[in-house]
């Protein structure tokens, strides 16, 4: 990364001017939210008026909201998958979008166990870059002088695959980091990172993590903010430091880079930064050798003002660990985005994680909202909307304070009235634009990192696993699950209560086979996290005493649950319940090895 210009008053004016323009943009689009939304929908529909999908529903080139809502259905990924597969298999006719599809973005959500792939266009990179450009002007309103130092962010690329069409399929952040928008970005003090591009773009996760940590430690006094995309990723970096700090100290002491880092471009980039610094190496060694790692972030990077990570949704489980390592530094969630679309940003970034709200930026896409009626039941997939539900859909400016809604988007890249799957709650308004807190991802019961396992998938995995118990005349009475993040990386825990009618004891190896079968049955995002990303630990099955789930029901009823409506929860999170389950564990077993996972998407591998 280029260093900041010295005494360049003109560049300071440019930064101030850019920040002012960004804040004025936010003010303008939120003050005119409905007019902007109307314009966005008109642009999307006029650009793609000739595409097959819109012609299929007889839109006839109309761009008004009324006709659009009347004739275009609300859909899920499964509804759109045949059209997406045609594009992936090489059909270049305008099926979904008037502009050429440039690549596919793989989602952390899955369909039939495989990652969803979202078509995108080159122009979307401009929209993503726009949202990124708004983050630091907002942040600087709350934490001044961030341009006087650097950010230590742990950013990584992930594996990608090619579809038969030749178009690449990869995660949205990998796409962005590999784009010219990121690699050739002009100097901006707010995007001045300790990690050289080469370390971020290294495909070997060990080499990437090691080299980014080495550069971050070497520049420790310049670091004003630290972060990663997800809280789990940042904690993984600290865990890596715990394991490898002696090697890192040695490199800082001697101005070298460990021999395990073999990527030539990474070595060259790092050695331009790291020079012999025995004094710094002694300091790091002293801090890392102490018995407690409490506050290690503020000890090693003393000028750090906040941690920039996602801690909403399932990531909230990592807040206590982050507080421990940081001595309670502010945890900042800056933006809300997905593979389908980048949505909005947090205009009050220093708020408590429990109060994070995102303002949807009206220029990003056309937004609609379906009132959410959550209950304890979980369906396999969203059903088609009834006529009553279609009439309940509301536009961005018509949502009601305190209400929960399912987010539906129409994008420039060819998604029309698409159900994202996120449930949001309206918490307030920025001018005429609503602000939302993230409530949950529909149907997800377990998540450690970017994985999302729903109840149906979990149930199928359990069914497959208990087949190993049949020869021993043993059966599963009841089960529940828990995302255990007390370990790094976190892992899935299954609590099983068994009925054993046989006389032969069940060997530990059989329960280990149950663990592995469950992992083999879970989706490709989970298996990638286990095999490639190392972001998820081995699955664990805990066998509990007979009668444990009766005790669980008694506890729920004592807290007001109806005995007539009680159903065993398929995932537990409430600490007293977790303590109850753990107090009745008689044995536990871990998956003995990683499940099978191969780079790429199964459907395309089958065709090759």
UniProtKB/TrEMBL annotation:
Transmembrane segments: none annotated. GO terms for molecular function: acid-amino acid ligase activity. The keyword Ligase applies. Keywords: Ligase. The keyword Ligase applies. Residues 358-441 form the GH3 middle domain. GO terms for cellular component: cytoplasm. Residues 457-575 form the GH3 C-terminal domain. InterPro entries: GH3, GH3_C, GH3_M. Belongs to the IAA-amido conjugating enzyme family. This is Indole-3-acetic acid-amido synthetase GH3.6. It comes from Papaver nudicaule (Iceland poppy).
């Amino acid at each position: 990364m280029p260093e900041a210009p010295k005494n360049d008053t003109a560049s300071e004016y440019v930064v101030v001017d850019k920040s002012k323009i960004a804040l004025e943009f936010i003010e303008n689009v939120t003050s005119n939210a409905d007019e902007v939304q109307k314009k966005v929908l008109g642009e999307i529909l006029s650009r793609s008026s000739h595409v097959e999908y819109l012609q299929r529903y007889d839109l006839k080139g109309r761009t008004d909201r009324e006709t659009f809502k009347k004739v275009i259905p609300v859909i899920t990924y499964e509804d759109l998958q045949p059209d997406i597969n045609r594009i992936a298999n090489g059909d270049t006719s305008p099926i979904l979008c008037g502009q050429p599809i440039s690549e596919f973005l793989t989602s952390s959500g899955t369909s039939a166990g495989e990652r969803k792939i979202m078509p995108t266009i080159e122009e979307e990179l401009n929209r993503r870059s726009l949202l990124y450009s708004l983050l630091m002007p907002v942040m600087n309103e709350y934490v001044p002088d961030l341009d006087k130092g650097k950010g230590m962010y742990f950013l990584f690329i992930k594996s990608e695959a090619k579809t038969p069409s030749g178009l690449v399929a990869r995660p949205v952040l990998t796409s962005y980091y590999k784009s010219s928008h990121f690699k050739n970005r002009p100097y901006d003090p707010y995007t001045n990172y300790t990690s050289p591009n080469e370390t971020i773009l290294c495909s070997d996760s060990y080499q990437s993590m090691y080299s980014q940590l080495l550069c971050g430690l070497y520049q420790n006094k310049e670091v004003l903010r630290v972060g990663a995309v997800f809280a789990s990723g940042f904690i993984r970096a600290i865990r890596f430091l715990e394991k490898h700090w002696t090697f890192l100290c040695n490199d800082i002491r001697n101005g070298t880079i460990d021999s395990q880092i073999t990527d030539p471009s990474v070595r060259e980039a790092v050695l331009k930064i790291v020079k012999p610094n025995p004094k710094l190496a002694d300091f790091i060694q002293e801090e890392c050798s102490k018995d407690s790692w409490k506050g290690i972030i503020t000890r090693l990077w003393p000028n750090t003002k906040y941690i920039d990570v996602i801690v909403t949704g399932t990531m909230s489980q990592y807040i206590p660990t982050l507080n421990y390592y940081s001595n309670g530094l502010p945890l900042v969630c800056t933006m809300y985005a997905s593979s389908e679309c980048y949505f909005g940003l947090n205009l009050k970034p220093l708020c408590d994680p429990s109060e994070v709200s995102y303002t949807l930026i009206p220029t990003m896409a056309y937004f609609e909202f379906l009132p959410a009626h959550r209950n304890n039941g979980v369906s396999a997939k969203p059903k088609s909307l009834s006529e009553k539900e279609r009439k309940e859909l509301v536009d961005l400016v018509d949502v009601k304070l305190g209400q929960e809604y399912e987010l539906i988007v129409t994008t420039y890249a060819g998604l029309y009235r698409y159900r994202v799957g996120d449930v949001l709650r309206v918490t307030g308004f920025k001018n005429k634009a609503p602000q939302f807190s993230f409530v949950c991802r529909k149907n997800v019961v377990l998540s450690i990192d970017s994985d999302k396992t729903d109840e149906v998938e979990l149930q199928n995995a359990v069914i497959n696993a208990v087949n190993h118990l049949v020869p021993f005349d043993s059966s599963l009475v009841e089960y529940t699950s828990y995302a255990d993040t007390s370990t790094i990386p976190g892992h899935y825990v299954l609590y099983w209560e068994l009925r054993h009618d046989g006389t032969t004891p069940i060997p530990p190896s059989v329960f280990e086979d149950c663990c592995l079968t469950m992992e083999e049955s879970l989706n490709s995002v989970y298996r990638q996290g286990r095999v490639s990303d190392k972001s998820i630990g081995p699955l664990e099955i805990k066998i509990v005493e007979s009668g444990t789930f009766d005790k669980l029901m008694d506890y729920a009823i004592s807290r007001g649950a109806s005995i007539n409506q009680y159903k065993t929860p398929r995932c537990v999170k409430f600490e007293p319940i977790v303590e109850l389950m753990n107090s009745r564990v008689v044995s536990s077993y871990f998956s003995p090895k990683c499940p099978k996972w191969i780079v790429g998407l199964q459907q395309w591998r089958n065709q090759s």
